[in-house]
Design brief:
614 residues, alpha/beta, 8-stranded parallel beta sheet, 24% helix
Amino acid sequence: MKRNERHRTPMFGGWRPFAALWILAAFLCGQRTPAWGQMPQAVSGAVHSHASNAGAQTSAGAHQNDGPWWKHAVIYEIYPRSFQDSNGDGVGDLNGITERLDYLQSLGVDAIWLSPIYPSPQVDFGYDISDYENVDPQYGTLADFDKLVAEAKKRDIRIIMDMVMNHTSDKHAWFVESESSRNNPKRNWYVWRDGKGVGADGKPLPPNNWISLFGGSAWEYDAKTKQFYYHEFYKQQPDLNWRNPAVEKAMFDSVRFWLDRGVAGFRLDAIPTLFEDPKLRNEPATGGTNAQGDPNLSDIYTNNLPEVHGVMRRLRSVVDAYPEHRVLIGETYLPNVEELDKWYGGAKRDELQLPMDMQVGFANKLDASLFRQRIKDAQTQINGNQPLFVFDNHDNVRSWNRYGDGVHDAAIARLLATVLLTSRATALMYYGEELGMVTTTPTRKEDVKDPIGITGWPKEKGRDGERTPMQWDDSKNAGFSVASTTWLPVAADYTTTNVKVQESEPDSLLNWHKKLIAMRRSDPTLRDGKQVMLDETNPSVLSYVRQGVGGKPAIVVALNFTDEPRTITLDPATAGVTGKTVSTLVTDAPSLKQASSLQNLTLPPYASWVGSVQ
């Protein structure tokens, strides 16, 4: 939800069963288990028929037996407000995304993750949902959504929804009922508690010391019913009470609504925060204050409680009742790989297929040794599950700025893209990442749109900077909108950093991404080859091999993490790979295009080299 400091405790880098049991679980959960031919008529044409049309799927046609589609996918996050405005109001929308599907197909995207498009007061720009089964009018209609799903299917692109299960908007009908009286049937759908008396100022005291991620107490007093409700985020985002089975049933019904409509799965927002300590124990203080001026607290009583895993197993049963490998992706800022493994369900693999591994992409420093260890952990410490790597999203300063040094930014961006797209992992991208879009942070408080930037200014300037409009060309508003004013201003570099310019430049960052994505789609080794580290004591160069698959050559990757030339000698035999002769597949170093040996290979500053071993 928010940068690396997703919670108040500083973290690492910043924030089948058998058929009978499956059917029984479906029955107990009250879920529908439609056969493929029995999908609702209105949406059956919009659902991907991967099983019957596998040969037509670009990403799977030649690889029908190497796992579900998501295992090798490139997933592309779109912030709908900022991708393409189709009606000239300065705000992106669903029809705008549909207009740009050909671009996404040319890039090689397998699925689009849409940040929330539900009806919302937009306090947190859609993460405060007032209706889980509709589309906000500013983004379009359900018919527009169905058209997007159908048009995306024609291009072998799936649609993934953002599902916010931790909280609703305070304008949601559930909360309106809940706050109406202590006796309302939905009172217990949210976390209501009595206060601890009255303070010296005559105001009611909250139940404990828990603070909101977005500033101040996490408890909001309701004068009418004389109780507090809990909100991990804004006060307009009251937390649901997941200890009430009625909440789970209602939320799972909304999940089925979208599954019936043809979505390929869900990204689960802030999912570790579903449960809070029922004893309401105070969080331990960790010292100092945060950008909002609140004391820094641990989050041991409000984050990643064990009860959440039961919900994830039941949700997985709901999703598994549908055809075509629907997927669950978790926003999982976790302290270590051991905790990450739990979100897969460990060896049972019965929770999320793809909890996000934030430890690699949000290390936030170019340290070859650190990257090596964290990638190695992802390959060896999660019970053989599929890692999901990500470097950018709508809550964090863009990787261009987090990792760039101001001199070698483009080379560093290519290096990060190479890690993302040549590792044995599903890849998650954020719109504009492939162009090197920069973070454009407001310089004046009056220009800030993100409420956390308003309340935290100047220490916390909000997330507007990483949400600026997509840069398509050098025309007005970068081709994003014809409006006189866009919801956020376009970044100043749009005339030179845009799709149109980079498509025509063979060595552009965009074309670098296209090359790597095309390779991972077509090469069995990059799809399924085991990833093994080479030259493991080298502090400056990250090198690894992807072992050959299906008779195809092994692939070696070498990445210089420093601003000085580095000469390396690699021995792939240490990773069980025979062969001494190499040929370059892709590199941004002209001096390495004709490389034929792994002996005395000199990498220029921040250079990336990928080669096959014969």
